[in-house]
Amino acid sequence: MHPRSGIALCSTMYMDWGRRFMRLFLQYTSLDKNNDPERPLVIGYVSPDYFTHSVSYFIEAPLIYHDYTTYKVVVYSAVVKEDAKTNNLRDRVLKNGGTWRNIYGIDEKKVASMVREDKIDILVELIGHTANNKLGMMACRPALVQVTWIGYPNTTGLPTIDYTITDALADPPNTKQKHVEELVRLPDSFLCYTLSPEAGPVCPTPALSNGFVTFGSFNNLAKITSKVLQVWAKILCGVPNSRLIVKCKPFCCESVRKQFLSALEKLGFESLRVDLLPLILLNHDHMQAYSLMDISLDTFPYAGTTTTCESLYMGVPCVAMRGMVHAHNVAVSLLQTVGLNNPVAENEDENVELAVQLASDITALSNMRMRLRDLMVKSPLCDGSKFTHGLARVCIQKYMVSILQW
Hints:
CATH class of the largest domain: Alpha Beta
Radius of gyration: 22 Å
CATH topology of the largest domain: Rossmann fold
């Protein structure tokens, strides 16, 4: 199947699902108009990921930097198992004057009623079709403006969700990916990364002491397809004595490790040049594990997001490739927002060439490593205040349009 055909089929499946799903909630769909022009706007955020989860690093900025004096913020938390990060986020929201509601285990129709009672004007869901989502609540249309952001790289298929927050790199104007939502492109990245306080210092690039280059990936194993492995094999073949380090949770299982190494060997990898690491529980230790690699290799067609940000923050350049869909382009958006255009390939051959070229100059790698963190911290990717004000401005503009059309 041609990639464009697959994209079209995927979009059709989501939209078909959305139409069928809506039948379950049509009788619960109602909307109360805000008849008080003096009442401050109320923005709601709903997610099950307000805990130590990859998505939480991108949720944090709006919850911290919203102007709580101009409008109200209500957080709907569907967290299954709360942790210290949950407590920290809740405390900061409440301290700023916001409202925090625990909706875990509550029927979605009842949650929709809660949203109506809270008089939410703009409701932002951060989950999409991932675990513990609240799409049933969104189907009930409890808010005038309903938005999806961060949590899912495709359309929700739900006609009651009006907008998707994105940018022109993740979703170019000529994208072939179809959405039921209108795409709202922010001027910089659609993401804002909150830095990990436990990360620790940037370490020198290991090639200086090792005498060889180490490539790496800490992405989800499901993203490492056979096509990705083929490209990585070519990269290692192009860089004599280089090594590969891959870290992901399933490698705690010996059978998974053996299966992965077997797949590599079939592509001509020498298994002795590959190191596999399982999940590292402590965030500090996880972040310091980036000190083991010189260059990180992105996955495709589903790129890394949190891992790309972590890599850059730890001074490790990431080689990514532009694609035809949002999921493929997220790392491109992140890299270019930070100001890195060179490690972006247009195709698989260029991906190999860029990685080999980066590995050929250890001095340049070392210099880049020492300046990447500062470059990232000073970029729009980590400017929580600017990002949040821009996000709020866009949401309010869409709300005003909806009021006029109602």
